[in-house]
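step 3/5: co-fold with zinc ion
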Amino acid sequence: MTAISEIFSKICTKAIILLALLLIQLMLLIKKLRSETRPISTTQYLKLIEQKNPTISFTKRLKQEHVDCRVCLSELKEGQRVRNLKCKHTFHKDCLDKWLQQYWATCPLCRNQILPDDVVAKYRQLQNQVESDGNDEQINFLLNALRGGSSLHRFI
Ligand SMILES: [Zn+2]
Ligand SMILES: [Zn+2]
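step 4/5: write tokens
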């Protein structure tokens, strides 16, 4: 009788561990699925900027109105890749793209909106998710600890 109850309790413990493992794996799966439907990636974000304000080559005509890129404060030269915004302010493409990724999507000079708020919010959401991805380490640690525990049980 005792032998049977011992076996039974061992099975129970294993079942509990297995269930916990499944639960954690399910949590990881949900997290992964959620990350796959992430709102807007950096590439998509830059693509949207490009659609609204296509990259152009800086020309003599533009030089009459613009002298410096106000992000890097260096002179705009003919042939350089620039973006001419709707507000008529011109910046180097790379300077502006960096700016737009770090700050809200507004013109560095006049704060005129470049992309709609919801697009920027979706992009920011992604940035926050990337920053909080460290949480996975805790889950992985727990998973390994449990795996270690279940292998121990095989020896008992
Ligand atoms: Zn610049
Ligand atoms: Zn502007």
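step 5/5: annotate
The pocket of zinc ion (ligand 1) is lined by residues 69, 71-72, 74, 91-92, 95 (CB under 6 Å).
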